[in-house]
Specification:
284 residues; mainly alpha; MetI-like fold; 0% strand; globular
């Protein structure tokens, strides 16, 4: 009986496996092969030479990678701190109001990311919504906060907040109220309950939310272009330039492979520390 169930399971998984192979594995394989081709070629009919990986080091593309990873890491930490109290309220306090809050957060995803970021540009630019009205009514003026690293990190936090908030709320909801109350009865302080009870038991939600936010932020492009004005070049911008204006597919592929490997290693490490059965409710 178990053997029959296993065969039926494999047969049922074949369509999805084929879709994943065609839509995910095949493009990744093409990118990986192109990454070892000579510079500025558009076919596989060449001997591999790994020159694009040397260009990555020699021409300073690693700096773009470091900026992207650093800003993504900073945004993820800020998101974790900002979303924890809100996620806690959604999971334990707000009750029916949680649905209203969820709809409000999800509704922001219905608007294009670029449109929302341009809205911030119009709000924060010199003579924009804030500075223009402030100068007109009070005579006070200030320099625009646009076109720098802090505003790029702000954009990452603003755009990817839902991807941290909802997994974190799910993780906090997994913390039993009885466990928290028992800790209080035994004399634990609020900070002890937070660090010794809530954070460890909510770790699956923390890891999933952090991974989603970090992975998406690492490959973000619009924030650095629209809000940052290219004060800092993100690795995604270099990849886009190599594939389009530079017409250097091997270089773009090499940069993509490096980014994918770094993100993949971090993602696999994080997923390996997550109890997926507990997240899906299959084990309590």
């Amino acid at each position: 009986m178990n053997r029959l169930d296993r065969k039926l399971g494999l047969l049922s998984a074949l369509p999805l496996t084929a879709v994943l192979a065609l839509s995910f594995v095949a493009p990744m394989l093409v990118v990986a092969i192109f990454s070892v081709m000579p510079q500025k070629v558009f076919s596989f009919a060449n001997m591999p030479d790994f020159s694009s990986y040397r260009v990555f080091l020699e021409q300073g593309y690693y700096k773009s990678l470091m900026w992207s990873v650093g800003m993504a890491f900073a945004a993820t930490l800020i998101l974790l701190v900002l979303c924890w109290p809100l996620a806690y309220g959604m999971a334990k306090v707000f009750g029916r109001f949680t649905l209203v809050l969820t709809i409000a957060v999800v509704a922001s995803l219905f608007v294009s990311e670029n449109i929302r970021l341009f809205g911030w540009v119009l709000t924060l630019m010199k003579g924009g919504l804030i500075e223009g009205h402030l100068r007109a009514f009070t005579g006070i003026s200030f320099d625009t906060p646009l076109y720098g690293v802090p505003i790029i990190v702000f954009g990452l936090v603003y755009v990817y907040l839902p991807f941290m908030l909802f997994p974190l709320a799910q993780g906090i909801a997994m913390v039993p109220d009885d466990t928290r109350q028992a800790a209080y009865d035994l004399g634990a302080s609020r900070w002890q309950v937070l660090w010794q009870i809530e954070v460890p038991l909510a770790a699956p939600g923390i890891v999933v939310g952090s991974l989603l936010s970090f992975v998406l932020a690492c490959g973000a492009l619009a924030e650095s272009k629209i809000l940052g004005g290219q004060a800092v070049i993100a690795i995604a911008d270099d990849i886009e330039t190599a594939f389009t204006f530079g017409q250097n597919w091997p270089l773009g592929s090499a940069l993509s492979v490096i980014l994918i490997v770094i993100i993949g290693v971090l993602a696999l490490y994080g997923v390996g520390r997550v109890d997926l059965d507990a997240i899906m409710g299959r084990r309590r």
